[in-house]
Amino acid sequence: MRLANASVVSELVLVGFSNHPQAELPLFLLLSLVYLTCCFGNTAVVTLVVLDVSLQSPMYFFLCHLALLNVLFSTLVVPKMLFNFLTSRKVISYAFCLAQTYLTLFLECTECFLLAVMALDRYVAICHPLRYLLLLSWPACVALALGAWALGFFASVVPLSCVILPLCGPYVVDYIFCELPILLHLFCADTTLQEAMMAVGGAGTVMVPFLLILLSYLRILLAVMRVDSIEGRKRAFSTCTSHLSVVTIYYGTGLIRYLRPKSLYSAEGDKLISLFYAVINPMLNPFIYSLRNKEVQGALGRVIGRYRAARKPQAALLRR
After folding, report:
1. Using an 8 Å Cβ cutoff, are 177 and 77 in contact?
2. Which of 107, 186, 202, 298 could form a disulfide with 167 if both were Cys (CB 3.0 to 4.6 A apart)?
3. Strands 11-14 and 172-173: what pairing?
């Protein structure tokens, strides 16, 4: 009977922050602003790279893929969350819940591999500067980027299709969006195998890229320490600070979420942590890469200058 009931489920209750109704309107206003800033910032990065030739290098090519990941992840989670803030019926369709589960896992895995590719880019740029554009030619960059997306797909969507089981009531998701660890509590059958597969898959998709990042930066550190001048060392390290910041925030949030003591676990705490990596983190990434980046600031000035120069003849014709 439980399996029969599971086969006809059409929607689930998505609790979100409904336990704090007084906070829903402020959260709606705040997260709407954050989401719009995320979309604008990441779109601006991609637009600058497309319009300015000086930014059309391997590092910014991979940054465009990271920006796309940020927008996709936030768009998958935030609009539904905002809609539920304004409605009294906090539900999500089962089909969309499954879509969120598959796609958020896919995007999370892809981001892990993409951050490893970006660390490889920094390693080649610092340790092999004379061969940088030869080793990371455009065909190589496209292959690395597509490889990150493909690995993310085969490490997430394919195994997940073997893990999803029928659901049993109560159909309540006490979270801000649908994710596999949350759905495990709703599965009808024993989930020991699914939990083991999730642990092995998580170790592979998180730890392998993380170890590659550590190895890349260890080689970078050894190469930089051989530079005689302090100014040269600072210049070399400055090219890595943005990527290191993004990696630290991304993996730091994951460590806090999964490795904190059980005594510190709470449903509301998990929601706040997930809110950070699903909404805040994607908004921060374009600013981390641009605020102290003279190349991006210079490109922005040139694009604005060209736009103003193109507008002057049109304005003169209108005045006539």
Report:
1. yes
2. 186
3. parallel
Q: What is the pLDDT of residues 246-289, one digit of tens each?
A: 998 888 887 777 666 656 667 777 888 888 888 899 999 888 88
Q: What is the 3-state secondary structure (H, E, C) of the chain?
A: CHHHHHHCCCEEEECCCCCCHHHHHHHHHHHHHHHHHHHHHHHHHHHHHHHCHHHCCHHHHHHHHHHHHHHHHHHHHHHHHHHHHHCCCCEEEHHHHHHHHHHHHHHHHHHHHHHHHHHHHHHHHHHCHHHHHHHCCHHHHHHHHHHHHHHHHHHHHHHHHHHCCCECCCCEECCCCCCHHHHHHHECCCCHHHHHHHHHHHHHHHHHHHHHHHHHHHHHHHHHHCCCCHHHHHHHHHCCHHHHHHHHHHHHHHHHHHHCCHHHCCHHHHHHHHHHHHHHHHHHHHHHHHCCCHHHHHHHHHHHHHHHHHHHHHHHHHHC
In the chain, what is the straight-line distance between the N-terminal and C-terminal CA atoms, in Å?
79
User: What's the rounded Cα separation, in Å, for the pair 273 and 259?
Assistant: 13
Q: With a threshold of 0.90, does the pTM exceed it?
A: no
Instruction: Retrieve residue 114's tokens.
Output: 């993409």
Q: What is the pLDDT of residue 183?
A: 82
CA distances from 279 to 33, 67, 70, 308 (A): 11, 13, 9, 33
Cα–Cα distance measured from residue 178 to residue 100, given in angstroms and rounded to the nearest whole number: 6
